[in-house]
């Protein structure tokens, strides 16, 4: 009994290294297999949504989806089993995603048509960020994250500003254009305003009256102008992050105290006074 | 008589603290209630504009709007009463907004259909900026304001330039394309030109002739290129504001001369030579 | 005879000061009048292009246009007469614009319908830059000009790149989509490609086949990405111009040698060693 | 025989200088001729695709295309003959482009309709970058290349992020909107999502339901916001490249130690203390 438990423990430990780690060959192989299966599962959901393909290959697609669902179920079970703190995994973001990406298939036994919800499986694509988590890559990513994090408050103020402006101008355009031009209600007008302000411009709704077109032109120029604001925010952060980045490409380090020498033509270390050689 | 006046004075003072202040619990509660009612009133105007909903719940919506209007009227009266300089409030931006957001409902007694003007109430959403006026937030906002203020002149020149270019190219496109392609008049052509230059591109009007399409392509590339100008202006301002910002996140200050230490690994103050401690 | 000539000379001199200068009251008044008449003339051409308005007020518009044309003709004559180097003016950019903005009206005697060419009068709007030429304004404008000038070569390379990419992808899309989807010829496909690459997206032509949509998505993301290039170019120039700008807002100057003190916490002038005071 | 070989060798050497070089007059002339012929050939393919023009001038166009094809064939043969390492050329990018730009015409003998593939000839336009390869120009180009190269990893992460987001939101929109609104399948929905996220907005597919429009508005604002990310990346790189660029426009160098003097009004070299003269 004890030997069995030990075997089970060893199995759990091995599974943990394979599933969560990526240093061993098996772990790397598992990561790549998972990557492939996730891509395949997303592809399958896509193909199924194309009516012509679904009509032709319905059985093949359904069988494949079941195979993938079972694979994901086993993976989900293993992740719970081999984790020392299974609850933490279950209620983590990835844990929830992993669960709801397999649920719709089982649900389809009871609720017909619920299989369409398996599109949520696409969320598993986010795992790829983790799988492709090379050192260099992460460095870049974290720099991105830092810049975005630092400018978060400004961006929230900015989005709030856009929303208030859109509600105001949307309401005004509703009064000016009226339902005949497609501005059937204020929410629709607000939707149109966001479409215009962000320079997307579908054209499904477009102003017809002269006054409406003048205000629309004003909104466009404003939108064109304020696109500068988020760009300015993020760029300033990037430039800042870059300036403070200690891993700058190919900078000299002081041979004595390993401080990074920012100024290329320094002749003495600014930290310890050690004389520097060029090169 | 005198006691009454004092009571009234105390009431005014209390009302002032609640309405204009946000330090007391009651003041904070009032702010949040106002926030909720403003959001609700905007939502109501939106819902009323949706024909189907209005047909179903007309009485409910009208009654709710009257309740909100009365609430706003009382708030408006209180703001005038408890303010020591009521005229200053009445003719301030917010004072006018507060007034014209309650007027349309009362007007609807005399002029039927004027209730639609209560969409102007959406302007009260701007008060949210004030209500959400946390210290940190304001810091961000004022930095935004500074950057925008500093680049104001450049942006005006820029908008003027866009308008002149649009009039010129709009007139040319009117001559080339003519009314058959939707370019029914020069103002419409100018509208089209702004739609194109700002990369919105509704497609309600689009050039059909070869020459028209060539000029349109030219306008697009130009618009694509000059989008860089406002961005460049604002970004340079942001980067500048960032560099000069003394409240940079968590910078050390010299304990002796309170100079800000920009370089994180400095061991001596670059200003007074005081030895610095890490931490 | 000699007295007459002197009178004529005085008239020419006065006219010169009024027309070309803007320091005297009369000169300023002339500038503002010209500004008004130019705006009016552009407005008239616009209104005439609106069929309904033209039908109603045809006589009024034509008479007004003739009055403006005569005003412009007199102005043109005066500009030639009072200028010491009339040929230089005649063949300058503004001289040519001034001439061709009055020609179409006179031409309409001989060639009916040529009056439409008077839209070229909109070019005179460019004079407004000159008229509004306040000192502060020009400073901003010239900084804009410098930044644009410095990044000119890069922008030309960039536009050339966009054109080559558009021709290539336009040709490919023509082969893939074919005339049925609106890609009737390669030039039209190139036009579509520019419309897409610049994120304008009219939607008058849109890919229908799967392969076409994949390539279109690729073009969009590319266009979305390379919008960064002109922005990056211009922003870097702006930031540079800003850094080198000696008229930076509110910088201290050394009381001894008037050198600008860039570093706010300097205690000695970096140029002459004079001790600086704060504030 | 030997003399002939020598003559042939001289011919090869001369041809090499003319075709590959651009220092001699003949070489320059060849480059410009090639430039003209490439532009002409692209123009011809374009014109042929316009049905009306092709119907009218079919013979003229076909004959011209044959002349150009023969010109290109001779050029291709010469490039192989005079090159000392012909295989390197044949399998180089330009070698393959040169070959496949003449193949379709010869193929059209056997496979009718294959002449349309000669649009691939547009790829030869890329050669123009080489031909216009002036020193100044290249400097600019290489700075562009450096900035793009440095930000490559970040841009790949960014594009990957856009793709994942598009798949996720595309799938969700497919479930919400359904085939009735034009969201016929998940791939089509993803295509729509990219069209929206990049602010292109054709309008061939547009959300109709309220929930769909809310999500669309959210996608637009997100797209509008994240357009800042690539811009921020590239701008930071540009600003960096600019700062580190040793060939900065007209900077002084210290006559003693050749250090670049960044500060224009320095009177002493900041490196070796040499007195500087203004210049």
Number of helices of chain A: 12
Largest sheet of chain A: 2 strands, antiparallel
In round numbers, the mean pLDDT of chain A is: 77
Largest interface: B-C, 50 and 57 residues
| Order of helical and strand elements of chain A | HHHHHHHHHHHHEE
- How would you name the oligomeric state of the polypeptide chains in this document? homotetramer
Proportion of residues in extended strands of chain A: under 5%
What is the radius of gyration of chain A computed over CA atoms, rounded to a whole number of angstroms?
Answer: 28 Å
Class per helix and strand makeup of chain A: mainly alpha
Q: Quick one: overall form of chain A? A: extended
- Low-confidence region ranges of chain A: 134-138, 246-251
Give the strand line-up of the largest sheet of chain A: 1-2
Percentage of residues assigned to helices of chain A: 55-70%
The span between the termini of chain A is 66 Å
How many β strands of chain A by DSSP? 2
Structure, explained:
The structure is a homotetramer of 279-residue chains. Chain A has helices at 2-20, 25-49, 51-82, 86-90, 93-100, 103-107, 127-131, 135-150, 152-177, 186-197, 210-226, 228-244; strands spanning 252-253, 260-261. Chain A is an all-alpha fold and 279 residues long. A two-stranded antiparallel ribbon of chain A has the order 1-2. In chain A, a hairpin with a 6-residue loop joins strand 1 (252-253) and strand 2. Chain A is extended. Residues 134-138 and 246-251 of chain A have low confidence and may be disordered. Chains in contact: A-B, A-C, A-D, B-C, B-D, C-D. The interface between C and D is large, with 47 and 54 residues.
């Amino acid at each position: 009994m004890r030997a069995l438990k030990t075997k089970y423990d060893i199995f759990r430990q091995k599974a943990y290294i394979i599933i969560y780690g990526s240093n061993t060959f098996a772990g790397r192989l598992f990561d790549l297999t998972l990557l492939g299966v996730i891509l395949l599962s997303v592809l399958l959901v896509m193909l199924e949504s194309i009516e012509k393909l679904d009509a032709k290959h319905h059985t093949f697609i359904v069988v494949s989806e079941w195979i993938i669902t079972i694979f994901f179920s086993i993976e989900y079970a293993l992740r719970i089993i081999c984790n020392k703190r299974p609850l933490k995994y279950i209620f983590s973001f990835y844990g929830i995603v992993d669960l709801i990406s397999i649920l719709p298939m089982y649900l389809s036994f009871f609720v017909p048509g619920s299989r369409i919800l398996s599109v949520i499986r696409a969320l598993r694509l986010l795992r790829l960020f983790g799988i492709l988590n090379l050192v260099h890559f992460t460095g870049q990513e974290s720099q991105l994250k830092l810049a975005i994090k630092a400018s978060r408050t400004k961006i929230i103020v900015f989005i709030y500003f856009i929303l208030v402006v859109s509600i105001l101008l949307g309401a005004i355009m509703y009064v000016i254009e009226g339902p005949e031009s497609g501005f059937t209600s204020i929410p629709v007008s607000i939707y149109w305003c966001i479409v215009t302000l962000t320079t997307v411009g579908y054209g499904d709704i477009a102003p017809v009256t002269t006054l409406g077109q003048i205000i629309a032109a004003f909104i466009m120029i404003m939108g064109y102008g304020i696109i500068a604001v988020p760009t300015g925010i993020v760029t300033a952060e990037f430039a800042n992050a870059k300036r403070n980045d200690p891993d700058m490409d190919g900078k000299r380090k002081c041979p004595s105290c390993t401080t990074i020498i920012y100024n290329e033509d320094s002749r003495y270390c600014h930290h310890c006074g050690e004389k520097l050689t060029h090169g």
